[in-house]
């Protein structure tokens, strides 16, 4: 395989500049492989999905409560699958022969989106399913994942690895429900947030002051919280069920915006925890990349020695970032109890913290990227449910596996070259 | 550097504590160290003849004894035995499937007089333990042992009493009731894991709805389960209440207004959603125990519950051990012998029309005398 077989159009030279010149054999191979994957997906749609469908696929776009009712979207199943498969084939062939270079990630993202639509058209063939409710569920289910990722970003941008997110979620969920039962939902939410902060303080003290291996502390936090909350559930909550009966934050519809079709129910008719997630994603992005505090935090995460020599207190910056991160994690934990069922059950977070960790990496340690990654995970979770309901011939165990499969594919394959903060996980010792 | 090592070892000590806390082993320690404290409902301390009391020991499935359903109901059989027969009740909660064997072994080592294992998933672990300890009586909920391929019995010494339940008979009634009560013409169900003790509920529910359609010329649809393909909606766990909420929401979005979750505590999440939406939009059919009683926070949303009375069968097994009449084999709970049944409608009584109640009564008689088959619509 040589360079000549991959002619570079002049435009892409100018657009991507230096990158194109450095196009290595490895990149060419990567382009070939992803091109083949896309062609295979296209073949799958054409040869497996198309023969299996008949009639129209109907997608509901409004719930009965929406102010503006949209008609259901009905598309001919076979016809739209042909179109989608052709798009995939075109993108795959282009990628195989020419490569999209700098735009590869975006093109791959679009391709997988096209494939997801094809999957839905195939599954809904001859039936109807409520697309809008799936999208609403996507946003709701990605909330704890996005917040968990944000928690990780705050810690790791300052150079402290936090794999204790799962424990912080679980701890927040637990204290949220207990304090919520006693003193009301808002106090519960506050307590959940503080619990995350306290757990993060433990992480910070051990990581910054005592320079313990951060991976180990994270694991300890996860296991400690799981054991502690399970113990307290069995010993306290079972005997005093009134402590395990917190009020639930219902969805709050924002006037006007909430009435916009599709977007309204997705983003403007959710619980305050979901709104909190949007606010946090926005504000952390601003704080990290537009303020002095953010610059210092990132500097400490990249090169603590240089930051220190310029008079930035590495320890102080790390303490603050880690504690903020923990508070975000605890807040996310409240989603499981106060934002959902008002009741705590052992290990109810079910590994969402770890998925959040994957979303953080997928999103390249950037809050917005992490949110988009979380949306993909949330989407695959809710898609799985709809598929089970549509009775498609894929075993439910496989569907349940799908989000994790997506995690592996995404983290290993698509992300490839994202770079963590340079000093991530390294304790800093002042000379 | 020296401090580092010290701290690290301290951390490991904490980790070890944490690990112990999340495994089943802590509970073992608790129950052996302080049996009276660990089991709230064991015989009152005063009447406790110390070591002399026979021990009835229960290993739960991962849902835990506070699941307001399955495990709790079986545990009630054990605590009833503690109250009425003076046995000492001990329970170990399994946190994961890997806990089954060690938990059973812990009870074997403690010299339990009967070991109750709760759940289909404990089938293999129970068989292994029973064959290794042929003198200890076991009883398992939701499992019946047959013969190996070579014709020898799977339980060599016949020391296991399997408890199985024809829950489809009661679920059939629930399906009929749901079909007669729905306003949207769609009812839904979802399960925890696709295993027979779960899907038998869903089968019965489905065929009950079909029976109603056939009797009344309606066209009520069942979402979430297809008995022909044996495929449907499953959370793949018995723990996540958030899943229970999301799955019920999903079914509501597709038009269902009555949902039967067959997933232990997961269903409590569905009930929380129903409470929030109001019973006009969503009613829940409880399973295992009368959830109107066991889940008071969401009382207003339970149309009825499909009862699976493993407390009675478990109690009887313990009693048989005390009386010296214990025999292995299989006991089957049916509508006829009260092993399964439908809970009262409680607050929902007015929702069910007198005609439907009449039909239900006739149907119950039909199922018991065999003139109505619950295996088809």
What does this structure look like?
The complex is a heterodimer of chains A (431) and B (377). The longest helix of chain A has 28 residues. Chain A is mainly alpha-helical and 431 residues long. In chain A, helix 6 packs parallel to helix 11, helix 7 crosses helix 14 and helix 8 packs antiparallel against helix 14. Chain A is globular. Chain A starts with 9 loop residues before the first helix and ends in a 16-residue tail after the last helix. Chain A has a three-stranded mixed sheet. Chain A has a two-stranded antiparallel ribbon with strand order 4-5. Chain A folds into two domains: 124 residues, no CATH class; 283 residues, ABC transporter involved in vitamin B12 uptake, BtuC, CATH 1.10.3470. Chain A contains 17 helices and five strands. Chain B is α/β, with parallel strands linked by helices. Chain B folds into two domains: 158 residues, Response regulator (Rossmann fold); 165 residues, Response regulator (Rossmann fold, 3-Layer(aba) Sandwich). Chain B contains 13 helices and 14 strands. In chain B, the strands form three sheets. Chain B has a six-stranded parallel sheet with strand order 2-1-3-4-5-13, with helices on both faces. Chain B has a six-stranded mixed sheet with strand order 7-6-10-11-12-14, sandwiched between helices. Chain B has a two-stranded antiparallel sheet with strand order 8-9. The longest helix of chain B has 21 residues. The N terminus of chain B is likely disordered. The chains are: A mainly alpha (431), B alpha/beta (377). Chains A and B meet through helix 6, helix 9, helix 14, helix 16 and helix 17 of A and helix 1, strand 9, helix 9 and helix 10 of B.
């Amino acid at each position: 395989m040589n360079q000549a077989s991959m002619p570079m159009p002049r435009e892409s030279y100018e657009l991507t500049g230096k990158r194109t010149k450095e196009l290595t054999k490895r990149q060419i191979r990567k382009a070939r492989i992803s091109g083949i994957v896309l062609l295979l997906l296209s073949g799958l749609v054409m040869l497996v999905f198309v023969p299996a469908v008949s009639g129209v696929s109907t997608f509901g776009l409004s719930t009965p409560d929406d102010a503006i009712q949209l008609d259901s979207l009905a598309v001919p199943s076979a016809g739209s699958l042909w179109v989608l498969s052709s798009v995939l084939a075109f993108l795959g062939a282009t990628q195989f022969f020419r490569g999209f270079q700098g735009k590869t990630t975006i093109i791959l993202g679009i391709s997988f989106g096209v494939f997801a639509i094809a999957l839905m058209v195939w599954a809904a063939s001859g039936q109807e399913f409520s697309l809008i409710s799936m999208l609403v569920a996507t946003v709701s289910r990605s909330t704890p994942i996005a917040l968990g990722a944000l928690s990780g970003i705050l810690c790791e941008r300052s150079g402290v690895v936090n794999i204790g997110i799962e424990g912080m979620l679980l701890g927040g969920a637990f204290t949220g429900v207990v304090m919520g039962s006693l003193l009301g939902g808002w106090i519960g939410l506050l307590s959940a947030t503080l619990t995350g902060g306290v757990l993060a303080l433990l992480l910070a003290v051990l990581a910054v002051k005592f320079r313990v291996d951060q991976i180990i502390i994270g694991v300890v936090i996860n296991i400690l919280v799981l054991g502690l909350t399970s113990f307290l559930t069995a010993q306290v909550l079972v005997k005093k069920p009134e402590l395990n009966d917190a009020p639930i934050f219902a969805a709050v519809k924002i006037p006007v915006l909430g009435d916009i079709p599709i977007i309204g129910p997705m983003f403007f008719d959710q619980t305050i925890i979901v709104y909190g997630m949007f606010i946090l994603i926005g504000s952390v992005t601003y704080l990290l990349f537009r303020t002095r505090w953010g610059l210092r935090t990132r500097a400490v995460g990249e090169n603590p020695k240089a930051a220190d020599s310029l008079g930035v207190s590495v320890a102080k910056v790390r303490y603050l970032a880690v504690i903020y991160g923990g508070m975000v994690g605890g807040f996310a934990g409240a989603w499981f109890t106060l934002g959902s069922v008002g009741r705590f059950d052992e290990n109810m977070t079910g590994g969402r913290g770890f998925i959040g960790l994957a979303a953080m990496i997928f999103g390249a340690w950037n809050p917005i990227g992490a949110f988009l990654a979380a949306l993909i995970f949330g989407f695959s979770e809710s898609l799985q449910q709809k598929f089970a309901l549509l009775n498609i011939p894929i075993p439910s165990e496989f569907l349940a596996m799908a989000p994790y499969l997506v995690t592996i594919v995404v983290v290993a394959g698509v992300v490839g070259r994202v770079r963590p903060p340079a000093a991530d996980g390294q304790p800093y010792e002042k000379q | 550097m020296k401090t580092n090592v010290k701290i690290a070892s301290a951390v490991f000590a904490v980790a070890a504590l944490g690990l112990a806390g999340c495994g089943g082993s802590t509970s073992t320690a608790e129950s052996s160290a302080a049996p009276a404290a660990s089991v709230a409902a064991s015989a009152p301390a005063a009447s406790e003849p110390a070591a002399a009391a026979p021990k009835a020991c229960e290993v739960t499935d991962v849902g835990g004894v506070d699941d307001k359903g399955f495990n709790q109901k079986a545990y009630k059989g054990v605590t009833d035995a503690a109250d009425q027969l003076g046995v000492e009740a001990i329970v170990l909660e399994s946190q994961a499937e890997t806990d089954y064997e060690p938990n059973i072994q812990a009870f074997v080592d403690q010299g339990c007089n009967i070991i109750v294992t709760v759940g289909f998933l404990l089938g293999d672990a129970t068989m292994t333990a029973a064959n290794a300890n042929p003198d200890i009586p076991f009883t398992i909920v939701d499992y019946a042992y047959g013969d190996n391929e070579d014709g020898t019995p799977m339980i060599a010494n016949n020391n296991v009493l399997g408890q199985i339940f024809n829950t489809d008979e009661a679920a059939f009634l629930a399906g009929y009731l749901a079909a007669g009560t729905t306003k949207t013409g769609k009812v839904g169900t979802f399960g925890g894991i696709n295993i027979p003790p779960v899907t038998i509920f869903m089968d019965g529910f489905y065929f009950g709805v079909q029976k109603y359609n056939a009797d009344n010329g309606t066209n009520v649809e069942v979402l979430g389960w297809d008995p022909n393909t044996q495929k449907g909606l499953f959370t793949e766990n018995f723990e996540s209440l958030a899943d229970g909420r999301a799955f019920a929401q999903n079914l509501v979005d597709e038009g269902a207004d009555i949902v039967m979750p067959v997933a232990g505590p997961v269903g409590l999440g569905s009930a929380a959603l129903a409470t929030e939406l109001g019973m006009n939009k969503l009613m829940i059919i409880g399973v295992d125990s009368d959830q109107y009683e066991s889940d008071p926070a969401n009382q207003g949303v339970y149309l009825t519950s499909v009862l699976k009375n493993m407390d009675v069968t478990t109690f009887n097994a313990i009693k048989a051990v005390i009386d010296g009449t214990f025999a292995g084999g299989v006991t089957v709970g049916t509508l006829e012998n009260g092993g399964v049944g439908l809970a009262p409608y409680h607050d929902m009584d007015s929702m069910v029309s007198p005609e439907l109640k009449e039909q239900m009564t006739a149907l119950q008689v039909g199922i018991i005398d065999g003139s109505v088959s619950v295996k088809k619509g």
